[in-house]
Amino acid sequence: MESIHLIQNTKTFAFSAENPTGARAGGSRGGDCTKLRPCIDIHPGETVTLVDTDGPGMIQNIWFTGYVGHSFILRIYWEGDETPSVEAPISAFFGCAYDENFEDREGRYPILNSAKILVAPGRGLNCYWEMPFRKHCRITMENRSGEDKTLFYMITGCYMDLPENIGYFHASYRQEHPVQKGRSYTVIDNIKGKGQFLGLTLAAGMNGNNTCWVEGEARMYIDDDPYPSIHYTGTEDYFGGAYGFGNDIYLKRYHTYSGLYTGMFAILGDNAAFYNGQQRFLLYRFHVPDPIHFETGFRMTLDNLGWTGPRYDDYTSVAFWYQTLPHKPLKPLPGDAEMVMK
């Protein structure tokens, strides 16, 4: 049962362009029907602090719009750590790594409608991952492009007492453009600590003929596993689908879907021909009802495999997990130009 009906000793906070300090009564002095500072501009190479607050507390919702491309890098730091626990371009974090494509095969905005992330028309980015912190939280946004970019944002949460056994939210970006043929794609590795893996967003761009790209298997290695303890039979199976997301049987056509915890919510590119090339798929899988628990570490790989053998498609992902601190530094991001995806 949810606890929203309980009266608790909590205090709500909200950081936005109109109230950048998140202070009580810290919003606009403009009165009704005025907009004094609805957004901010972030200059080339500039990093802006969106949240800087002491705990204990929890981030409960993050909303972004404006520029929503890969040149905006979201970082979150817990407990005064100098290295971020979250570092990813906002487009990939919210499952829209093909951020220059604003319409799906039907000419509509792709809509990701899950319990933890919502991407709503026209490209409103919503995050509902709970992010507790005991002493301090800092959230920043860096503009790695060569021009000014506009950000609208609202970040809400509450100050509250926390249990002793909290885990800290982490997210890490990975890409291979293309995946090395014959080698598994690494979704995440080098996690050290105790916690639980909560899933990923994935963008898969086909290079060459499709030939059922979803034959690749997902493998999860818990702690010091020499072989995977969790081993799925295919890519579409891991993301909750079956038979090539519908392209293998009956209608012979891919079908999108978006559920509470998993989906293949968008296809970019023509889908008229059976297994035609150059399509782009946007997927997510969140282990909320079925978290993958680890004691000392975790890693996950995903094959890039078709009917005819190993492939060389473009894979882009963000992995999500909770863990104890301290944490290992996240893998450095590629350069801004290396993230361009069309």
Could you tell me the number of beta strands? 25
Give the C-alpha Rg: 20 Å
SSE class = mainly beta
Mean pLDDT, rounded to whole units? 93
Q: What would you note in describing this structure?
A:
This protein has helices spanning 90-93, 235-238, and strands spanning 11-16, 40-42, 47-54, 57-66, 72-78, 86-89, 112-113, 117-120, 124-127, 131-133, 136-143, 149-159, 168-176, 185-192, 195-205, 218-222, 230-231, 257-258, 262-268, 280-286, 292-294, 297-302, 305-306, 309-310, 314-323. It is an all-beta fold and 342 residues long. It has one domain (12-24, 38-326): Jelly Rolls. Strands 3, 5, 6, 11, 13, 15, 18, 19, 20, 21 and 25 form an 11-stranded mixed β-sheet that branches. Strands 1, 2, 4, 7, 8, 9, 10 and 12 form an 8-stranded antiparallel β-sheet that branches. It has a 4-stranded antiparallel β-sheet with strand order 14-22-16-17, with no helix packed on it. A hairpin with a 2-residue loop joins β23 (305-306) and β24 (309-310).
Question: Could you write a compact summary of the structure shown?
Answer:
With 342 residues, this protein is mainly beta.
Layout of SSEs?
Blueprint: E1 11-16, E2 40-42, E3 47-54, E4 57-66, E5 72-78, E6 86-89, H1 90-93, E7 112-113, E8 117-120, E9 124-127, E10 131-133, E11 136-143, E12 149-159, E13 168-176, E14 185-192, E15 195-205, E16 218-222, E17 230-231, H2 235-238, E18 257-258, E19 262-268, E20 280-286, E21 292-294, E22 297-302, E23 305-306, E24 309-310, E25 314-323
Parallel strand pairs: 6-13
Antiparallel strand pairs: 1-12, 2-12, 3-11, 4-9, 4-10, 4-12, 5-6, 5-11, 7-8, 8-9, 13-25, 14-22, 15-20, 15-21, 15-25, 16-17, 16-22, 18-19, 19-20, 23-24
